[in-house]
UniProtKB/TrEMBL annotation:
<feature type="transmembrane region" description="Helical">
    <location>
        <begin position="197"/>
        <end position="217"/>
    </location>
</feature>
<feature type="transmembrane region" description="Helical">
    <location>
        <begin position="59"/>
        <end position="79"/>
    </location>
</feature>
<protein>
    <recommendedName>
        <fullName>Aquaporin-like protein</fullName>
    </recommendedName>
</protein>
<dbReference type="GO" id="GO:0015254">
    <property type="term" value="F:glycerol channel activity"/>
</dbReference>
<dbReference type="InterPro" id="IPR000425">
    <property type="entry name" value="MIP"/>
</dbReference>
<feature type="transmembrane region" description="Helical">
    <location>
        <begin position="229"/>
        <end position="249"/>
    </location>
</feature>
<keyword id="KW-0472">Membrane</keyword>
<feature type="transmembrane region" description="Helical">
    <location>
        <begin position="85"/>
        <end position="105"/>
    </location>
</feature>
<dbReference type="InterPro" id="IPR023271">
    <property type="entry name" value="Aquaporin-like"/>
</dbReference>
<keyword id="KW-0812">Transmembrane</keyword>
<dbReference type="GO" id="GO:0005886">
    <property type="term" value="C:plasma membrane"/>
</dbReference>
<dbReference type="InterPro" id="IPR050363">
    <property type="entry name" value="MIP/Aquaporin"/>
</dbReference>
<feature type="transmembrane region" description="Helical">
    <location>
        <begin position="136"/>
        <end position="157"/>
    </location>
</feature>
<feature type="region of interest" description="Disordered">
    <location>
        <begin position="336"/>
        <end position="355"/>
    </location>
</feature>
<comment type="similarity">
    <text>Belongs to the MIP/aquaporin (TC 1.A.8) family.</text>
</comment>
<dbReference type="Pfam" id="PF00230">
    <property type="entry name" value="MIP"/>
</dbReference>
<feature type="transmembrane region" description="Helical">
    <location>
        <begin position="277"/>
        <end position="299"/>
    </location>
</feature>
Amino acid sequence: MANMGRLQTNDLEIGATEAVQQHYSRHVVATKPVSQRKLDFEHARPRWLRECMAEATGVFFYVFPGIAAITTFTLNAASPLGVTAFGGIFQIGWGFAIGISFAIITCASTSGGHFNPAITICFAVWQGFPWRKVPYYIFSQIFGAFMAGLLLMGMYWPEIQAFKTESITAGKGLVYNGGPASILCTFPNPTQTNLGYLFLTEFFVDSYIGIVIWACLDPANPFVSAQSAPFAIGLAYATMVWGFADIAISTNLARDLGTRIVAAIFFGGESFSYLNYSWIAILVNIPATLFATGYYEFLMRDSLSKIAKGHALHEHGEDGLHRHITRTGMIETGSANAIKDGQNGSDDLYKQDTV
C-alpha cells in the first residue's frame, strides 16, 4: 500500500527541491534512511578514485559540449543554410561556457573542480594542494577529454566519414583548420606560420582566464558567490573563444591533448606535427596560468580580508594577526570593511569558523 503521508499537500516531493529547501516554509518529504551497506560501501571506496572520476567527468562535461558545437558548425559550414542554421563561434563559446558551469556544479564538490592541469599545478604552488595528487589529477583530466573526443567520433561517425572523403577528394587532406581533425583540437590557419605570434596569443588568452578563475575562487571577493562562480568562470572561457577562436587558441592542456590523441588515432600523426603548432596548444597553458595566478597572488590578493572572513588563519594565530595590525598601524579601507563585516563582537574580531 502506498505511503499516504507522501500525499500531503504541504510537502515538496524529493528531487531538485531539496537544494532550495531553505527558501521554502514547506518541507521536503524525507528520503528513505541511508542503509549501513551504503555507508560501508562509500567508506571502503578510495578517495583518490572519487577525485579522479570527478576530474575526468568534469573535463568531459566541459569538453564534449564545446567540441560538439564545433563539429556541428564544421560539418555543416558548406550547407546553404550554413552559419545561420548551425551557429558559429558564438554558439561554440556558449557550448564551452555552459559545459564548464555544469562541470563545476556537478563535480567540484568531490574533487575541488580543477578540470585543467595548469590550475591543479597552481593550486599546488600557491594554495598547498598536495603535490602527490597532481599526477593523477592531470591524468584524469586528460582522460576525460580523451573520452569526450572518442564519444564524439562515435556519435558523428557517418557524417565525419563523409566529410573525410569530401576533404580528401578536394585535395585538402585531413589535418587543417576547418578540416576533419579540427573538430577535435585546434590548428592554426595556413597563413599563421609565426609561432611567436601564436605563442603570445595563447599566453594572453590563458592568462586572462587564469586571473578570472583565481578572482572567482578568492573567498574575500565580495562580487562572486559560490552560486555565481561556475557561470563567471564559464563566461571567461566564452569571452576568449568569441574574441580569439578564429586565430587558434587552446585554453586548456587537458582539453587539447586528450582530444588531439583521438585526432591522431583517426586522422594520423600530422595532428601533432601540423605547422609545429601542437606544443603551443599543449604546453603554454601552464606557464601562462602560473603567471596569471602569480600576478593575482603578488599584486591583488588581500589576505587580511581572507582571514577576516574566516577562510584562513594567520600562521601564528590570533596573536600573530594582532601583532601584524599593531605593527602596520593602519588597515586599508577594503580590508577594514571586510573585518568589520565579519566580526560578531569585539571579543571575536578575528574568530575563525572553519578551514
